[in-house]
Amino acid sequence: MGSRSGYEHRYGFSTEDELISLYNREALVYFDNALRKHRFKGFVFEIRTRFLLKTILEAHDCGGWLELDIYYRLFEYWMAEDEIYNLAREAFDFAKRTAADNPKYASLDVVPVVIGLDVLTVQLEGETVNDAHGRAIRPECLIPMNMCPMAPFLSPFRPPPPSFLLELPTVRVRVEDVDHGLALMEACPICFRVPTIGAQMSSLPCKHVFHNHCVVHWLLMSKSCPLCRYEIVV
Which residues form the RING-type domain (predicted)? Predict the structure, then answer.
């Protein structure tokens, strides 16, 4: 399948010595019993993401580095399923080769691996730079990892999400094309931006629709609909 139209992803793998002591000190508190009982080596993957806008002429940095858990966020980056599978397979292959070939990892129960990932929003033919920038994937348009739907299954070192957000009765939809987005809402009532390809919308029980990340941040401050003040009860 490859990258979805209008988006590209590049990645590479590396190890960093300073992460070895960090993860083998902190992660083993959580993983120690299982690792030692079954006598296998564990791998911790840390994604560091750079967000870029790739215009027809050049690339611009959209700002921000994130250190994240893998699967949910890759989906948020508009990465196709086969790309996610290939990245995971290559990451594990790299980790296993690194652990086998480098003597300094022989005594470690946990080997940390850095995945350097570029998420590029690609300007399409006939698309203005402003329009491409408007649909660019940026840190401020992403839900914090501890608030995502998979939060209970992510790293035990991350702060727990507000419990009501995990039980929030919303309907989430990803915009596949602009007409689809406009049928859901003309513009987000919170940020006033029009729907763009790849954006995720959430419909509250009162049927009002917002960008998913916008309404999550709103509900952290007020448990009611921004438009009609419908009280969100979970």
Answer: 188-229
Residue 198 CA, distance from chain mean position: 13
What would the two tokens of residue 87 be? Answer: 């990245």
Q: Which residues contact 82 (CB under 8 A, 6 or more apart)?
A: 1, 2
Q: What is the pLDDT of residues 126-184, one digit of tens each?
A: 878 887 887 777 777 776 665 555 544 444 444 444 545 545 555 566 677 777 778 88
Q: Is the Cβ–Cβ distance between 132 and 123 less than 8 Å?
A: yes
Q: How far apart are CA 16 and CA 104, in angstroms?
A: 12
- CA torsion sign for 152, 155, 157, 161 is negative
**pTM here?**
0.61
Point out the least confidently predicted range of 66-75, 79-88, 213-222. 66-75
Q: Look at domain 162-220 and name its CATH class.
A: alpha beta
Distance, in Å, from the CA atom of 159 to the CA atom of 216, rounded to the nearest integer, reads 16
Maximum C-alpha span of the chain:
62
For 10-32, write each residue's pLDDT tens digit: 899 988 877 777 766 655 555 55
Spans of all domains in the chain: 7-141, 162-220
> Tokens 């596949």 identify what position?
176
* DSSP reduced 3-state for 94: helix
Contact 6, 121 (CB under 8 A): yes
Helices (H), 39-144: 71-76, 81-101, 129-134
Contact 223, 205 (CB under 8 A): no
C-alpha 156, offset from chain centre: 17
